[in-house]
Specification:
This protein has 397 residues and is of the alpha+beta class. 26% of the residues lie in helices and 25% in strands. It has helices at residues 17-25, 39-44, 61-72, 90-98, 106-112, 115-125, 224-241, 271-274, 282-290, 354-372; strands at 8-12, 29-34, 47-50, 78-81, 100-101, 132-133, 143-147, 157-159, 170-174, 179-188, 192-200, 215-218, 244-254, 257-264, 304-311, 316-317, 328-329, 337-338, 343-351. The longest helix is centred in the last third of the chain and has 19 residues, at 354-372.
Length: 397
Amino acid sequence: MTASARRCLLVVSTSARMLVRAARRAGWQALAVDAFGDVDTRAAALGWEGAELHPDGGLRAESVLRAVERLAGGRSVPLVLGSGLESQPWALRELERSQHLAGNAPQVWELLARPREWFGVLDELGIAHPDVAWGRAPGEGRWLAKRAASSGGMHVRELAPGQALPGEDWYAQRRVDGRCCSMLFLADGARARAIGFNRMLPVAAAAPGPFAWSGATAPVALAGSLRHGVVQAGQSLTRRLGLRGLCGLDFVCNDSGWQLLELNPRPTATVELWDVHGMPPLLGCHLRACAGMLPDGPMHAGGAHALAVAYASHNLQVPEHAQWPAWCRDLPPPGQRIQTGTPLCTVHARHVAPARAAALAAARAAGIERRLLTGPFPGIPTAGAASPPASRTGVVV
C-alpha cells in the first residue's frame, strides 16, 4: 500500500460504498473490500479488493481475509465492518490479529450467532421480543423461519404450524403485525445515544422474497413512551454487551407496544439517512465512540430522507453509456449482467415530509430499470473474486 502517510481505514461489507462515502465525509481515505466493486465505490475508495459471496448470504470469510491482507500490505489500520460476516464470527478473531477492529468485539457477534443465548439475554434484561421456538414451528399461530446471524431479510420465510425448521442454525419467531422500524444509535461501551428512528419501506414488487430489505425513510415520529422504551433497550444492551460504535435495533410496533426483532452490531444502511448536511460525520462519531467518546450537543438532520433498493424485474445488462441520475448509488459497471430479483442500485430522495420522501424513492426505484437498461441476456458466467462479478446476487449494507 503506497498511502502510508495518509489517514486511512479499511471497510469490509457485502457492499462497501456507503461506508466508503461516510469515511470520506469524516476526513478518512478508505480501503474497501466488498463483493461488487461498483463504479462509485471504486471512484471514492483509495483501493479496492473483491471478496466472494457466500452461498448462504454475505461474504466468504476466507476471501475477505485474503483481500484484507492484500490491501493492508502488513500495515495495521482501523477496520470498520458492515454486513457480510455475521454468520462467520470466527473471521473477526482472525482480522483482530492483524488489524484494529473499530467496532464491536468478536464476542458480541458470536453471541448473536447463538440465538438461544441471545434471546436469553433479552429475557434477562426484560426487553420484549416476539416468541421464539426451536426445531419446528408450534402448532398454532403464524411463525417465521429465520437463520441466525443473517442480514437483509432474504432468508426469512413463513412457516406452517408444526413445520420443521430448515437447519440447526435456524429458529422460529412468531409473526407480529405492525410498523417495522429501527433505531440508529452510538455506543461507547457503557452508554448509548440515539441518532434517529427510521421506518422500513414496503417490500418492493421485484424483491426476491416477501421480507427482503427494500429501504427506509427517516425521521419517523414515535410516541414518547415507545421512543423511551427503545432508547432504554439500547442503553441496557450497551451496558450488558459493551457495545461500541454505530449500531441498529430493528423493532416492530403497534397499538400494544413494541417488540425487538434484531440487534445489528455495526453501521447499518440507515446511516446514509442521517450522515447528511447539518449532522456531524457519523463515521467520525463511530470511531470516537469506539474510543469511549459520545458526541455532545444536538444532532438534527433537517427534512426527510429515504433510500430504496431497485431490484431487477428481469435479467438485464447495464448499457455501456448509462447516464445514472444523481440520486442513484451503488452503480454497477457498464456491461454488468444483473439477474431477476437482485439489486440494480439504490435510489435516494429528500422531501420535507417523510411519507413524500418514501413515495418518491419508491417511484424512482420502480422506474430506473425502464429508464436505463437493455434487454435480457442468455446466461451468467462465473466471475473471479479479484474483479467485479458479472452478476449481482444480493446487496446488504
